Amino acid sequence: MSASFAFRLLATDAGGRLGEIATPHGVIRTPAFMPVGTAATVKAVYPDQLAAAGADVILANTYHLMLRPGAERIARLGGLHRFMRWTRPILTDSGGFQVMSLAKLRKITDGGVSFQSHLDGASYELTPERAVEIQCLLGADILMQLDECVALPAARAEVERAVVRSLAWAERSQSAFARNLDLGLARPGQALFGIVQGGIDGELRRRSADALVAMEFPGYAIGGLAVGESPEAMLDTLALAAERLPVDRPRYLMGVGTPVDLIEAVARGADMFDCVLPTRSGRHGQAFTWSGKVNLRNARHADDPAPLDPASSCPAARDYSRAYLHHLIKSEEYLGAMLLSWANTAFYQQLMAAMRAAIAEDRFAAWASETKTRLDARSR
Amino acid sequence: MSASFAFRLLATDAGGRLGEIATPHGVIRTPAFMPVGTAATVKAVYPDQLAAAGADVILANTYHLMLRPGAERIARLGGLHRFMRWTRPILTDSGGFQVMSLAKLRKITDGGVSFQSHLDGASYELTPERAVEIQCLLGADILMQLDECVALPAARAEVERAVVRSLAWAERSQSAFARNLDLGLARPGQALFGIVQGGIDGELRRRSADALVAMEFPGYAIGGLAVGESPEAMLDTLALAAERLPVDRPRYLMGVGTPVDLIEAVARGADMFDCVLPTRSGRHGQAFTWSGKVNLRNARHADDPAPLDPASSCPAARDYSRAYLHHLIKSEEYLGAMLLSWANTAFYQQLMAAMRAAIAEDRFAAWASETKTRLDARSR
To answer: Which residue, A89, B64, B236, B306, shows the most beta carbons closer than 10 Å to its own?
Structure first.
């Protein structure tokens, strides 16, 4: 375990950035896609499959883990890495986004959020300080500040109020993290990211970014996107926010996205991503391939002996016929969800590896244009 | 692919038999436990995990596969082995048992069984000839005759009628299989087993066994047990049937059972077993270990950093804490069902391997007595 957090920008090409983030649990090659391990497991995928697929880092959800099995319990058991048997870096979110989307009777004030668990109705409070404490207890390599994320479209005043509140919470999160470092609850090398908010309002985004940059976070997330706005608005906002962020810090675009979204976002300077799409789609019979999405529920696959991708390094994509995958999905067999979640997770990692190679070799623009065309093939 | 089917009895000890069955897809070491791959997948377990756990053979269900994806389709795709990526032997049942337990509007006559699919209500007929044909299309290494299995308790006349009908079906199955061999639909080395019926009536069991032995099947199943009778009656009936069967043919006790059942049945001369218990229990949070059953739903495991069995060769049993397994099962995560199905499948194979070693070393009686005591520990 190294004790340092550091971002190195290795190359840039056509807006894309090639880099490396050093963390206590190893290096994250960027652009990086983080599979989502909501409840301390990436659904239906074994940890060693994630590692073999090339995932350097996964995301875990503070909201789910604080409710079950509980942050203090995970800390007693040696932290989240040991608990779920994942030896590489983990990024945790702050819990705020999921409180707003999942919890019952939630109430948000300047102090924090109070809510009832969607599992058993028990009451909880999540403050900026508690969100940092939980993530320290989990032992995350990268922690996120508590923020307020507004669903779009929203009135400007509402978005502005969330920006102001999120900035105040950023300061409180930073202070809490520094205290935890002093107390030994946080360890050197762990890093807390600030989150840029502001909806799709350019002025608010700039204000949020500038204020966070002044606080000197080791990395910045761009939150509050992919929450109802158009793809164009999302990308424009990303570009605008990225422009205000220091080039020597990683930028994490939260909750994005489809393969094409990822390419577009990398071209606008984003370095890190997370999304449930590869695993959720896999459970529902949808596969991502270099020729676009494949819906395995479709009867046209029932007699097809071909695999999803004979050239893939992932056994799930390379070795099992579409006919078999179709059968498993139609039969609602565990193995269908397992194989497609694995194949999709691997595809997303292959996509990121291809982007990194293209940036390294100064051919990202051509690669992106060609790949988007291939990926946009109609779902079959 | 060898073209021979052969059983070699290597040693006997305290009623237990150590043997080897040669099949077109390799050798089955007996006593053997066959994981159940109902719909062309052992639920929540990868094929390579089964092989690594030491499973020489799996069972697949004719009833499920004839309905979905269809036997002719699997044949077009190269057979069941290729379809599900399992390179070792496969035994298929005849479909009869599951027609009676799952199908709607089933009607049984001397000709066969007609029924409606539990999936979509479509009408099907299963005759002795069609059951053999389907199993040939699937490419099973070991095929089972269509039989009639009566739920117990039942009137003697009903059991006797089923014995008579099953014997007639045994002859028709054998003739159909011989014709399929001539036609090239069956291949040399595939073997059709007869099934002894007769409830727990000693005279009927003897009559069934003697008639089947006269027909000279390459192996014999003992069916119609574990369907409502007491464990003692099951074991007594097994012993009685096994006594009438030739020592140089394998004996398959269908649908059994718990670890202790398996030990008792091996001591009464049974060589092969199948049961959904390890995988079904796994999906429900129950683990089998050398110290008895462990119910991972129980809150006492929530803080337990110990694995199920630190000495196991199975990663699922050895490397993951009970606390994590408890969390996964409580959270209804795929990985919980995956890990426990894997661990249980591996435990059953370890149990069979231990029995084979004990028989080989002439210490089966002592091993069985000691092991039953350990396994009978209260479920925790």
So the answer is: A89
